[in-house]
Known about the structure:
Blueprint (H helix, E strand, L loop, with lengths): L12 E2 L1 H4 L8 H5 L2 E6 L4 E7 L11 E7 L2 E2 L10 E4 L1 H12 L4
Antiparallel strand pairs: 1-2, 2-3, 3-4, 4-5, 4-6
Amino acid sequence: MESIKTFKDLEFEMHPISLNAKSLKDTKEMVANSKHAVIEFENSYGVSVLFGDIFYSNGIDTYEVVIMKDKHVCFDTPLTDTVLAYKNENEVTEIMRKVQEFNK
Length: 104
């Protein structure tokens, strides 16, 4: 059994929209700091965590979280049926912990 993954296990990369920021004149500054991390767990669930002003994040210290199942966004889980908005690092870790316990 793998150990419980936390926020510190997320590996953020530039969100694809950031890579195209040069062609988006009006939103260039807003997308410049957009980052994305995806992590999958042994139970086939995972989370997608987004950071930046164009997401449900303040672009400073909160994140948008979406639960995934088999690498697809999943809005039918025991935890939520929507996007989880403006979550801090501790809240993201708690969401990740709960998702890892699905089907146990």
